[in-house]
Structures
1.
Amino acid sequence: MGPLEGLAYGFSVALLPSNLFACFVGVLVGTIVGVLPGIGPVGAMALLLPSTFAMHPATALIMLAGIYYGAMYGGSTTSILVNVPGEAGSVVTLLDGYQMTRKGRAGAALTVAAVGSFVAGTVGVIGIMLAASWLADVAIQFGPPEYFAITLAGLLLLSRLSGGSILNAFVMVALGLALGTVGMDSISALRRFTFGSVQLAQGIELVPVIMGIYGVAEVLLLAEEGIAKTQIAGVKLRQLLPTREEWRRSTMPIARGSVVGFLTGLVPGPAAVLSTFISYTLEKKMSKTPEKFGTGMIEGVAGPEASNNGATAGAMVPLLSLGIPFSPATAILLGALVVHGLQPGPLMISQRPEVSGASSRVCTSAI
Amino acid sequence: MLARAVPLVLLVVAAIYLTLAVRLPFGTAARPGAGFYPVIVAIFAVGVALAATAGAFRGARGAEAVELAPDARRRVAISVAALIVFCLVLPWIGYPAAAFGFVAVVLRYLGARWTTALLAGVLSSAGSYGIFAVLLDVPLPRGPW
């Protein structure tokens, strides 16, 4: 079956009414769960995985992909609306997304995020079809030196993101690295910095750190300003749509973010997170007004939101072509495939999960 | 004052981290022990914290901190105190009671009326407990009752 026939077959499966309904339910539930603080896409999929056991494999996969994308979007929603990212991939989104909310452009930010994600997901599917096996071969040759270089590049990009003093950013990088060493050493299984606590032996997870840094900080900011001053202007329905100018400014960031995300997604590691950093930095560098980033620039929402979805699609390449999950979310998808008796690998050109991913974006946009 | 205190505190934290890290088995470059990576991180941390502290005391650019108005400072202090109390009493009185108390007290001090604060406390603690503990089976402490 050629790529085009495969795609057509994938669409014919995905567009069955029962599958569309499963997609809709998945996206709806995923978005609701994703909005809850501390439960990201992985948590949402893990929680709802058992509910798909009784379904047809394709329907189950479509619903899981829907949950995944829905939860990602839910995470971005809280990032934009209340300055608390639902998961790590949407941390960067809050830099400009929340500022847009304060200017009354929340609807535009949410719409651009959804459209950007959809475009990136579609670009990703095309990328998977055209280059899956070849790209997977390249990605699998990565060894420790390459991982180290990627991690280092990520940290350097991160320190350029904050916009403030580089020295302060490096202090925070050091603090983050130090927090990462708490818990069991992965080589010798020695407990580091746990002070006898059993909970700390498992290390400090990302969710408490995100909640502490963004959630608590937001509460304290609210405390500083007092309740009366934090009224956000009411929004009319028409203002929910981005203006023509905003569309124009979002187009290129979405295109670049899609490509950046897809390429980053091929590489093992926290690709969705890294890709958002890369995309944001890229947009800042490309922009004629880089100093305005962080004050509600729509480019700062469009690029990263496209890239984290592109990364998700990219991460499907090693999963589908090699059967190797590079991220927790794809690991759960792999688990779901195996539960349903499917063997991921070179033979599994079931375009269904990606097509469902694309169609689930349509559902999300519709909600 | 605050602009100097923050890097200083971070410097102290980094120094404590370094002293703890060197106690772990270091190993060699070929066979790194549990302390190998932490020591490298700690040296980096102490270095950058030292530079940041020096910059703050010289009054370098980007080191200035936002000074808060007295009543804003009081509200932030009360919120932080309430958060600490919340964490301390959570294992003893359980999540529903602690969340109710936290929300009610903080909202009251942020300027809400007593009735609003109490109502918000009941709704948010019952709502979040219902979603997380009942629907999603997250193990939250219930308390003695």
2.
Amino acid sequence: MSIADETLMAYADGELDSSASAVVEAAMKADPGIARRVADYREQRERLRAAYEPELAEPVPDRLLAVLRDRRPAGRPRRWRYPASLAASVVVAIGLAVFAWQRPALLKERGDGALAASGDLARSLSDSLSGDPPAGEVRIGMSFLARGGEYCRTFTLRESAGLACRRGDRWLIHDFTELGEARAPQSGDYRTASSTLPPAILSAVQAQIVGDPLDRAGEQRARSAGWRRR
Amino acid sequence: MDTNGTRENVHEELAALLPRLRRFARNLTRNPHDADDVVQIALERALAKLDQWRRDARLDGWMFKIVRNVWIDELRSRGRQGKIFVGPEAGENVGDWCLDRQTDLLSVQSAMARLPEEQRTAVSLVLVEGLPYKEAAEVLDVPIGTLTSRLARGREALQAMLAPGDAG
């Protein structure tokens, strides 16, 4: 009787169903050579298992545990700590101060010093999809899932651009800058809005984004979930 | 919320999986530093898409798959994929040279390191990590028959490299 090596191997690994196992067992009884091959597979399995067993006892580096503890990589700068990231960036702080002074209806300062979107800005962030025509002065660029597990969206407002992330039921402003050389996209160009974002906002996006930006269906799902993860 | 409770449990399960994830990543990358980097990125990715993990799926298999995908991405970005990964055709023969060196007595680890990537990951998932064939095939995104033949070839090459009865 001849049985393929792969079948004997699968038998030794416990992968065969009972009828196939019965055939192999009958062959093993009839042919010591087959029994020997099965024993070799089992021995090899045990040898591999035993050889790698000690690695499980090694201490796990703290930087890996830190990812689970903090949900942030330990070895990288924490650019996005709430609300310290705002204080850390003078440019952002000044830009926001000027902006808040110019357009008090669009931003609301919270007790902890962070700025939350309000008015048209908050409405656009919550309601508009990236392909939509601008609502008032606000145009949504792109949406993505950030490393911290929250949704973030870029936006432009006349000569300024920013990044807002969902925190609870608010949109907190995380980066904000003048458009400068990067002009606001022309109408009909909404889809490529992200490519016209200023470098400061783009690099903030790149530092935070997980995977790809949301497509339209992804945005619709996120919107109907209130921009919360579940 | 139930969601939060579930999520905390998953964090604990992930923490418990870390030694195995590191071990698998080492077998995958053959470099302990790369391995820990890959595990770190894989954890970040997993946390970001935890809602894509089906509760009825094994967490270890899901994580092994993410670890492997991170490593593939890393190799692509290093632009040296061709040097490390062997194509399916080349993979058929790479293990054969080992058969000519039956006199070499190698440790299990160094014998494993000489296997081509696709055989090494198959052996690692099934024999080291103890995954059933079906789960291992899912991690590698291949049909179960492909997994079985890679495993068989990998085991044959290992057997040729390792002296019988050597404590390894």
